[in-house]
Amino acid sequence: MVAHLERNGKTTPCFTCPLRALRGFREFTPQELEFVNSFKTAEAIAEPPDTILAEGAVSPHLYTILSGWVFRYKTLPDGGRQILNFGLPGDFLGLQSAMMEAMGHSVEALTRVTLCVFPREKLWTLYQSHPSLAFDVTWLASREERVMDEHLLAVGRRSASERVAFMLLALWQRARLVNLVEDNVLRFPLTQQHLADALGLSVVHTNKVIRKLTERDLILWRGGALSVRDEAGLRSLASYDSAEKSCRPFI
Length: 251
Hints:
Shape: globular
Number of helices: 8
Strand order of the largest sheet: 1-2-9-4-7
Structural class: alpha+beta
Helix content: 25-40%
Largest sheet: 5 strands, antiparallel
Order of helices and strands: EHEEEEEEHEEHHHEEHHEEH
C-alpha cells in the first residue's frame, strides 16, 4: 500500500535546485530548465518505511529524489524481499509505471526523502517538445539496465566477499558524485539486512564478510557511517571496473 506522502510546505524552484550545483549532473539549457520547472508540480516528503511506489499499482506521478535514500525491491511469495538497487539524489522513480502501466517493483524510503513530483501524463509532452530531455530519460533508463546487469553478475557469479565489496564500492562512488561523502565518511543508512537482501546472502554471512573487510582495513562501517579506507584494494577484490558517468543527466 502506498503511503500518503506529506506535501513539502516549501517547494524548491528548479532554477535554484541544489542538485544543479553538483559536479555530477549536466547543466540544463534555459529552455530545458523552463520546461522542467513547469513539469514539476510539487514536492513530497517520505519517511521510512513509507512506500513511495507499490508493486502492481499504477502511479499518477513520477519522482526525482531531491534528497535522501530509497530502495527498490520485489516481494517474494513467502513474504521475503529481493532488493533490486538503491536510489540517491538525482535518481528518477516511476518510469517503469509510466511506460508499462503497473509498477513491477516497490520503492521504499530508507531515510527521510524529499521528492520532486511530476505528473506522469506530461511525460509525453517532454518527448514531443524537448528531444534532449527525452534523450536524458532514455539515458536514465539505460543506466538502470546497466546497474541491474552488474547486480545480476554480482549475485550470480561473484563470491560473497566480492559481492559485498562491489555493492559498497558502487554506492560509495555514486554517493561521492552527489557530495554525500565528506572527509572520507559517508552517512550510510543501510543495515546489514538491506545488504543481505540485495546480495542474496544471509545476515550472518553478510556480517562475517563485513568483519573480514574491516580486518583487512578495506572499509570501516560503524555507527551508521561508512569509510572506504583502501579503495584500490576494494576495487581489486570486487573486480570493479565500472564508473559512474562524471556528468550525468537528471530531470
